[in-house]
Design goal:
Blueprint lengths: L2 H9 L4 E4 L3 E8 L2 E3 L2 E3 L2 E7 L8 H10 L3 H21 L2 E3 L3 E6 L2 E6 L15 E2 L23 H21 L6 H59 L18 E8 L2 H13 L5 E5 L5 E8 L2 H14 L5 E4 L2
Antiparallel strand pairs: 1-2, 2-5, 3-4, 4-9, 6-7, 7-8, 10-12, 10-13, 11-12
Helix pairs in contact: 2-3
Length: 330
């Protein structure tokens, strides 16, 4: 893997990854945003600080653990890569996959982050989306024209009202409606119970709402407390490392001392280019230090077993490099 791959892996779990003698990539949490019809989820915004260069051990330990190599070898690999970045930065910008671009303006390092990757694991699966416009309709009040009644028709209407009144009175006399005392009591009781039921329902609704508000406040308090504990742990894990190798246990019985050599280079830049070329060909290539002629040696792969090393060496000689050879380095 390339150096930027190790850095991006750590940014998913930590908020600060320091590259020794180069700078620090810092991930700041940002809340979800709404811009007109565009809804964006929460994310980690990656920035770069060239002033933070002290080795805190996080990146080197992770590389050593993943590649199963000694700490010093992982540190040498990072130093070689940093020197290559610094040389390239003097002439051109650096494009780091998954991180962004670095370039110089007035001898100051500027950083343009990659916007298509979200390192916030709690927002996994969320993406930006644009909602459709809401079509709103306006209600139009139509005023009806008042009917104008001619003055001559008013006496006719009054006569009709008198006739209707007399017909209603005659009907009431023929079919009188009686409201007995028993029916009156039942009506009053029904109204009373209905009022009690409505009052009880409103009281229960109010009590339920108070209970829900109380539960919501308790949940918010618990989440805030949990967030404080989590942030304290992240801060301690990121910035406070008491021991340089807290998570690595080296087993001397499994040290890879058999190295299939791909070449030796006087220039560190050329050695790093060879490593990148072999990594792209799916080899576990790495720089294994300098020989007695002060040449930087690059290995196709390294093995703990001599038998496995010889099998791989024969395959490489047959298919890729006939001049490859085996180095035993204690």
């Amino acid at each position: 893997m390339t150096l930027e791959t190790y850095i991006t892996d750590l940014l998913y779990r930590y908020d600060c990854v320091i590259v020794p003698n180069f700078g620090a990539f810092i991930a700041n949490r940002k809340s979800a945003t709404i811009n007109v019809n565009t809804f964006s989820p929460p994310y980690k915004q990656v920035t770069f600080n060239s002033l933070i260069q002290n080795n805190d051990g996080l990146l080197i330990n992770y590389i050593a653990q993943v590649d199963k190599t000694p700490y010093e070898m992982a540190l040498n690999y990072v130093n070689f890569k940093v020197q290559e970045w610094l040389d390239q930065l003097l002439n051109d910008e650096i494009n780091l996959k998954g991180l962004g671009s670095l370039f110089l303006i007035n001898d100051k390092v500027q950083f343009e982050p990659e916007k298509n990757i979200n390192y916030l694991t709690t927002a996994f699966g969320l993406s930006q989306f644009i909602s459709d416009d809401i079509q709103r309709t306006k209600s139009i009040l139509v005023k009806s024209k008042k009917e104008v009644i001619p003055l001559k028709s008013i006496p006719v209407l009054e006569n009709k009202r008198v006739v209707y009144k007399e017909q209603v009175e005659s009907l009431e006399e023929k079919t009188p409606i009686y409201l007995t005392l028993e029916k009156r009591k039942k009506t009053v009781s029904f109204i009373k119970y209905a009022a009690i039921f409505v009052l009880s329902a409103s009281v229960l609704g109010m009590a339920n709402k108070i209970h829900q508000n109380t539960l919501e406040k308790q949940q918010i308090a618990i989440l805030k407390e949990s967030q404080k504990v989590r942030e304290a742990k992240i801060q301690k894990a990121t910035f406070i490392i008491d021991t340089p190798l807290p998570t690595i246990i080296l087993n001397t019985n499994k040290i890879k001392k058999y190295h299939i050599i791909a070449g030796a280079f006087r220039s560190k830049i050329n050695a790093d280019k060879k490593v990148d070329q072999l990594l792209n060909q799916d080899f576990n290539a790495k720089v294994i230090g300098k020989n007695k002629w002060n040449l930087t040696q690059v290995a196709f792969s390294s093995f703990a077993s001599l038998e496995n090393a010889n099998v791989e060496l024969a395959k490489i000689k047959k298919t890729i490099a006939s001049d490859a050879w085996l180095l035993v380095k204690e």
